[in-house]
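does this look right to u?? acetylphosphate version
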Amino acid sequence: MPDAIAVLNAGSSSIKYSLFLLRGKELDLVLRGQVEGLYTSPRFVALDAAGRQVDAKSWGDGVQLGHEGALDHLIPRVREHLGADNLAAIGHRVVHGGMHFARPVRMDERTLEALRAFVPLAPLHQPHNLAAIELLMQRLPAMPQVACFDTGFHRGNPELAQMFALPAEMHAQGVRRYGFHGLSYEYIASVLPQVDARVSRGRAVVLHLGNGSSMCAMADGRSVASTMGFTAVDGLPMGTRCGSLDPGVILYLMDQRGMDVRAIENLVYKQSGLLGVSGISSDMRALLDSDDVRARTAVDLYLYRIRRELGSLVAALGGVDALVFTAGIGEHAPLIRRRVCEDAAWLGVALDATANTRGGPRISKESSRVAAYVVPTNEELMIARHTRTLLGAAGAEAGADASRHAARATLRDGSTITIRAQRPTDRQGMRNVLVDMSPESIRRRFFAPRRSFSEEEVQRFLDIDFVHHVALVAVADDAIVGAGRYIVTEPGEAEVAFGVSDQWQGRGMGGLLLQHLVAIARQHGVRKLVAEVLHENVPMLAVFRASGLPSETRHEGGVVHVTMSLQ
Ligand SMILES: Nc1ncnc2c1ncn2[C@@H]1O[C@H](COP(=O)(O)OP(=O)(O)O)[C@@H](O)[C@H]1O
Ligand SMILES: CC(=O)OP(=O)(O)O
Ligand SMILES: [Mg+2]
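got this back:
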C-alpha cells in the first residue's frame, strides 16, 4: 500500500496532472493526463506510465466545464486509480512566488492569501494555480498541499541580474527580475550530469521553448540569468505574449490610444507573440505548416529574438559549453532547433543534422566546440520530488525535539539523502567529512588553511544540546557527506555554518540543510540567523540568497556578514 503524490499544473485553459507512487527511494509515474479546452471544447485524456491511453472523455464544443468542473471530474478518477494506495499529498506548480517564496511551501489559508498578491503579475497562470489549491482545500481539507514556484530556481541569481535600473526602493519592495519556468530548469539541471557531466559543471544556455518560452543561463547547475523578468510576459515572443517591449510603447498606448490597464494586459498577454504577428495561430505547428508570409515572419521574429537573447546570456556567463533545448517546441520542432543552431554557428555550434531530425539527445557534431542537446523536461516530477521532501521535513518537525529530527530529502540531481540530527556516535563520520574536504573547502569553512583538527575542536562539534547548539548531518550511503549547525549567540539570534564534502557540492545540499535548520530555529524562537562567509565563497552566498529569507549583507575586509530574518 504505497503512498502516492498527485501533481497538478493548472494553466489558463488546461489542467495537467500526474500521479506518482512512492516506492522506496523512487517516485514511479503511474498515471498522467489532462483536461484541456476547459472553456471551449473540454477533452479529458489519461495515459499510463507507458503512454497508453487508459481513459478519455469529450464534453463537446461550447461546453464551459471550467476549472471546478475539471477537478470534480479528476478527483474520483484519481481515487479510483489509487485503489488501496494512500494519497499522501498534492503538489502544485505555482508560477509566481515573489521575493519571499523561493522554496516549496505547505499551503494554508494565510499562504494562499499571500500568493494572491501575485495574481496581477501572472494573470495567465496564478489565478488558476491558486483556484485549484483553494478548491482542493474545500474538497479535501485534511490533504497536505504543497506549492512549488516557477520563480524559485532563479532566486539565487546575482543581485545585478535581478535589478531593473529603477529607484533603489522599488527593488527593495520587490519590483525586480524573477524569471520563470524554474521547475523545468531545475529538472534539466538535475539530469544534466547524466547527459554530459562536463557541461553540468560548466556553462549552459537552456532554451525552454513552449507555449510560454524563456531561456536560462546556467553555471554549475545554477541559474545565473534568464530572459523573463518581473512577469512571464518578458523576454522572448511566445504563443500569445509579446516578450520584451520598450516601456515607452505602453505609455504611448495609454496616452495616445486611450487604452486602459486591462486592454493593455489583454494585448501583451493574449493578442501578441506568434498569434499577433502572424494573425493566424499561436501554435508553432500551424505556423510551420503554413505558406502564408505572415506565418513566416512570426517564426523569423521568434528566431531572431532567440538569437539576440542567446548572445546576451552567453555574455552573462562569459562563454558557453552547451545549448539545451526543451519543452513543446524545443523537444518536437527540429526545424526550429536547426535554425537556432545555425544562428549560433558564430559561437562554435556545429549541428549534426541527422541527430537533430532523430531528436537527439546530442544534436551537435562530435567536433562541435559548443555541444547541443535535446532534453525532455519534467516539471511534474520536480514538483513530486519537492512535495516528498517537504512532507519528510514536516514529519520530522512534528517531533518537535530537534535531537530526533530525521527526514529524507532529494537533491537537485534526484539523488536521495537523509538529513538527521547529529549523534554522539558521529565522531568518526564528522572526521571523515573534514578529511574529504579539499584545502579550498576547508579554507572557506574555517577561513584559514588547516591540516588537522585537535580532539577538543572535534569535541566542540559534538557538544550539542539541540537547544543552543543544533547540528544536522546529511547522510548518503551510510556516510556523512555534509553538516550544518547553528549556535545561539544571544537570545533570538544564532550563527549558522555549513560544510559539505567536495564531491557533494553544487547539488543543493547547503540549501536543504539550511531549510531544515530554519524550521528548527523557528520552533525554538530564533528570529535571526547570522553567517560569516568569505567574499569569494559565491556558492554559499547563493544558498542564502536562494533561501528567500529577507536578508541583509555587510562587507568587511574579505568577509560578508549575512543576517537573515526568520520572522
Ligand atoms: N511537433 C511540434 N512542432 C512544432 N511545435 C510543436 C510541436 N509539438 C508541440 N509544439 C508546440 O509546443 C507548444 C506547447 O508547448 P508546451 O511546453 O506543452 O507548452 P505549455 O506548457 O506552455 O502549454 C504548442 O503551442 C506548440 O506550438
Ligand atoms: C511561466 C510560463 O510562461 O509558463 P507556461 O510556459 O506554462 O505558460
Ligand atoms: Mg509549460
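The chain has a mean pLDDT of 90. idk if thats expected tbh
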